[in-house]
User: Fold this.
Amino acid sequence: MPKPAKADSPEPATAGGGAAAGSGGPPTPAVGLGALLADRTLDLRLIAGPEQAEVHGVHASEMADPSPYLLGGELLLTAGAGLTEPEAYPPHRPRRDGTAAGGPEPEGGPADADDAADAYVRRLVGSGVAALGFGVAPLHAEVPPQLVRASARHGLPLLEVPPHTRFTAVARAVWRLMAEARTRELRRVTEAQQALAAAAARPDPVPAVLSRLAATLGGHVRLWPDGRTAGSPPPPEAGAVPAALDALLARVGRAEGPATATDQAGGWLLAAYALGRHAALGTATPARTPGDHTVASVAAVLLALLTADRPAGAEAAALARLLLGGSPAAALGGPGPWYAVHARGGADPQALAAALGTVLLDPAGPAVRLLTDREPSPQPGWRLGVSAPAAPDTLATADAQARRALDRAEAARTPLARHTDPGFAGLVGEAEARAHAEALLGPLSPALRDTLRAWLAHHGSWDRSAAALGVHRNTVRQRIARAAALLGRDLDDPDTRMELWFALRWSTGAGDRGR
Assistant:
């Protein structure tokens, strides 16, 4: 029989919900509610609401209001412990206040069961729940009729979970169906990538890639600004699509525009991908699957290479200029500003390069490295470290900044971190700075470190340091002399003072770099 979750548990067990972090590839497709209903081992029964729903995960909760713990798209499972108690207003029995069950609710009395069910369903619909599964027994012999009426009224699919079906079995079934769907989608994406690569090798590569992309997506594709198209155009009833797609392409195609953008018009889904400077690829589809973005990104990379306005062998010529002593600015073809990017997590570096609007990509090594003249934005499935804007002659510094920014992004579990630390401190990574500080200041006790910090902050003034520390000036003298002896350093040397001040900012117990 279904096992109700603890009503006061803030995070009951959950299954599904998308690709694991760092797994790469397209997001995990949702599971259609019909596929769960067709699983005879579960024996689920739809008793209210539509059958058309997409399930992105399973969540079990007995809370009266589980909405704070929902992301949307869940199949919520409950045994009804958090709803109005089943014995509250049973038929043919008086209410707790003595009035007849069929009579009017007394003013100021407990909420009617229909109202409670309606409020519960409205909260679930407002949280984006895909469907509600109600386990009959041990608390309820049947799904409460007021819950059936509320679900039908608000269009929430309501499933009856029979006593012999465990909630865990439902969660496992969703996980299995999602895994199967993800495998199918990965196979489709792989086959599409191979077909696009083969199309790019044909004598007429651009029309071939466009046609293959349109066939894969099942929609319409367009190059901007030259106007070449492929696939079936949107139907007349979707008349707003061409103008909306043109506007989206013009926005992405600008030199300062975003690398990608999406929109909707006339019931169609629109997307645009930058192809370097002043060019873009647009797609318009009636529907979208999780792998479509990856497929379109690969096509964008190929089309960027095929349509770039440069003579044959330009990349080789740029590399030769660098190797023979030419300037990075000449090799890059412009002064920038440029952004160095380090990335980890995804499975398709070329799709990432297309999304960032660049073909300057180094996929080898512990992190993918890219160079782009567009300001990077977060990309699904990737963690990015982004440098400060850099000129061509400072790219080595930008590369180091991007590496340290990626370390921060991974430590904070954020999709993107930018280099923002100005000055000398920004040239050294946090881990290296702290290690150096602890090695240098290791001989000093916390009291000696505090005294040395105050003394340096007051430019060696004994009186002001003593006042700041609340001790006698002779105590400051004795401590500074002791610190100098332990460190074996001349504290009158300005270089020594600078190094110690930097170390004290990063030492353990100094707070946020001494600030």
Summary: Residues 67 and 124 are 6 Å apart (CA to CA).
